[in-house]
């Protein structure tokens, strides 16, 4: 029998996170204070983040030790299995060896708890009582709700309204872990009220929900804000994924030709890819492929410039590929990929040619997801299905070229709460959205006028 799962012992969980900053060919541009346009310092971030995380955000130390308390919680589901997709390989008739890292085995169903637990830990350590956050698909909100329950913090989640409607059981999941969930845009914040005034039927977006969550944290002394992606410290925490994979691939003797991940804000992709990016920067031949939705094509069609991380313009300015903070992406089912920007670290590496990117429409993505479900058994989250699609395309390319490639992708989450999306696909009702060229152009023009960078 061929080996399908490569497993590590609990004692083999990596003891540090990998910080890519000291290895980057070009240092990342600093966040800017939007008023002064000068680099934002710890003082700009302190009202909404604890010092422990701010230190990680700006750290240039390559390896950052993981506290014992966090390792202890990680051990509830880590190390996660690395699977060889033998059934999928056979179905495709490809000579490629396909591996996937299964982050769907976490209690919340995705990679997100890797950072949720770490963020809850550093906040608790500094006496914070409550955390606010946003969630798109509901995966991040669930992860933080779980972390709050395990570490002892109150959690308030602003959930993008379209997802709130599409995924009622994600809300119940969060509430079961003790969190409060508010559909966004809401009338609880100035940011939400403003959007509702302009468009009472707004489906919401991650950018809007972030504004609401930040405003809530900034206006309450005992409360801080927690972000599920984009920022350096979030990507840092996710590197445990790629560090584990490296140990697992050592067992098989394989090394990937291509590492694939879907990209919303960039955290699961960075998590699996950054430890390999380090090798690439040091001369190793490995491709790193980020996959995004054609309806929200940040890397492939965005502009590399400073922009706000949220619609309400409360965050510092971040240098990133962006579609403009005003851009509200079409209501695709991969809610976690509906973000106008991307992590600044990932964007810098993309701009430097270390990372490449591609985009797919949602129907072809669901077709790949169903193929995966019917061969490997796991039903992927719609976000994750973008990575599955790219892995299948790479495997078919290897077949065409008669090449024995090694393909690695991140199975960032399962889709058990996404049955409405699967139902729609199976009934032939799922629509592809045209590339929203005009809306993106308008949003970028407005950005240039507003920020002028
Ligand atoms: C399962 C899953 N994968 C991927 C993402 C995208 O986020 P990121 O790019 O930060 O990994 C999300 C976001 O909600 C998600 O839920």
Task: Describe the 3D structure.
The protein has 453 residues and is an alpha/beta fold. It folds into two domains: 5-10 and 78-109 and 240-451, Rossmann fold (3-Layer(aba) Sandwich), CATH 3.40.50; 113-227, Rossmann fold, CATH 3.40.50.1100. Helices cover 43% and strands 16% of the residues. It has helices at residues 42-45, 51-58, 68-74, 86-92, 113-125, 139-151, 161-166, 168-176, 190-198, 206-218, 232-238, 240-252, 267-281, 298-301, 344-351, 362-376, 382-401, 419-426, 437-451, and strands at residues 5-6, 16-18, 63-65, 82-84, 97-102, 130-135, 154-160, 180-184, 223-225, 258-262, 287-293, 303-308, 317-322, 356-360, 406-411. It has a seven-stranded mixed β-sheet with strand order 1-4-5-15-10-11-14, with helices on both faces. The protein starts with a strand and ends with a helix. The mean pLDDT is 95. Pyridoxal-5'-phosphate binds at residues 110, 136-137, 139-140, 229, 262-269, 336-337, 381, 383-384, 412-413.
Q: What keyword list fits this structure?
A:
binds pyridoxal-5'-phosphate, Rossmann fold, 4-stranded parallel sheet, 7-stranded mixed sheet, 2 domains, alpha/beta, 453 residues
SSE map:
Blueprint: E1 5-6, E2 16-18, H1 42-45, H2 51-58, E3 63-65, H3 68-74, E4 82-84, H4 86-92, E5 97-102, H5 113-125, E6 130-135, H6 139-151, E7 154-160, H7 161-166, H8 168-176, E8 180-184, H9 190-198, H10 206-218, E9 223-225, H11 232-238, H12 240-252, E10 258-262, H13 267-281, E11 287-293, H14 298-301, E12 303-308, E13 317-322, H15 344-351, E14 356-360, H16 362-376, H17 382-401, E15 406-411, H18 419-426, H19 437-451
Parallel strand pairs: 5-15, 6-7, 6-9, 7-8, 10-11, 10-15, 11-14
Antiparallel strand pairs: 1-4, 2-3, 4-5, 12-13
Bound molecules: pyridoxal-5'-phosphate.
Pyridoxal-5'-phosphate (PLP) binds next to helix 6, helix 13 and helix 17.
């Amino acid at each position: 029998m061929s080996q399908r799962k490569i497993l590590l012992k609990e004692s083999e969980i990596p003891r540090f996170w990998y910080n890519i900053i000291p290895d980057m060919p070009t240092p990342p541009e600093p966040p800017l204070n939007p008023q002064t346009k000068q680099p934002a310092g710890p003082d700009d971030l302190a009202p909404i983040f604890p010092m422990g995380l701010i230190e990680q955000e700006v750290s240039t130390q390559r390896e950052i030790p993981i506290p014992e308390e966090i390792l202890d919680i990680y051990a509830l589901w880590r190390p996660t299995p690395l699977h060889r997709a033998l059934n999928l390989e056979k179905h495709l008739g490809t000579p490629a060896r396909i591996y996937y890292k299964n982050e769907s085995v976490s209690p919340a169903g995705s990679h997100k708890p890797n950072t949720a637990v770490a963020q809850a830990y550093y906040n608790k350590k500094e006496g914070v009582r409550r955390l606010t956050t946003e969630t798109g698909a509901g995966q991040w909100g669930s992860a933080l709700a779980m972390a709050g329950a395990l570490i002892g913090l109150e959690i308030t989640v602003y959930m993008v309204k379209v997802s709130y409607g599409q995924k009622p059981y994600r809300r119940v999941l969060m509430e079961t872990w003790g969190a409060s969930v508010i559909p966004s845009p809401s009338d609880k914040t100035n940011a939400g009220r403003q959007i509702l005034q302009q468009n009472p039927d707004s489906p919401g977006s991650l950018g809007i929900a972030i504004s609401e969550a930040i405003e809530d944290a900034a206006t309450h002394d005992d409360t801080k804000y927690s972000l599920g992606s984009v920022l350096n410290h979030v990507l840092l925490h996710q590197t445990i994924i790629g560090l584990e994979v490296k140990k697992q691939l050592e067992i098989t003797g394989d090394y990937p030709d291509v590492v694939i991940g879907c990209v919303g804000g960039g955290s699961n992709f960075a998590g699996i890819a950054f430890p390999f990016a380090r090798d690439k920067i040091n001369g190793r031949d490995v491709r790193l492929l980020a996959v995004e939705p054609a309806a929200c094509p940040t890397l492939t069609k965005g502009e590399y410039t400073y922009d706000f991380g949220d619609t309400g313009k409360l965050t510092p300015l971040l240098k990133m590929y962006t579609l403009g903070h005003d851009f509200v992406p079409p209501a695709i089912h991969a809610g976690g990929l509906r973000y106008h920007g991307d992590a600044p670290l990932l964007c810098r590496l993309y701009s430097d040619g270390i990372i490449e990117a591609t985009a797919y429409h949602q129907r072809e993505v669901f077709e790949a997801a169903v193929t995966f479900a019917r061969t490997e058994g796991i039903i992927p989250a719609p976000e994750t299905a973008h990575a599955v699609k790219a892995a299948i395309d790479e495997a078919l390319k290897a077949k065409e070229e008669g090449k024995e490639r090694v393909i690695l992708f991140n199975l960032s989450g399962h889709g058990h709460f996404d049955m409405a999306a699967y139902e729609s696909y199976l009934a032939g009702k799922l629509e592809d959205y045209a590339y929203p060229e005009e809306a993106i152009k308008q949003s970028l023009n407005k950005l240039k006028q507003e920020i002028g960078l």
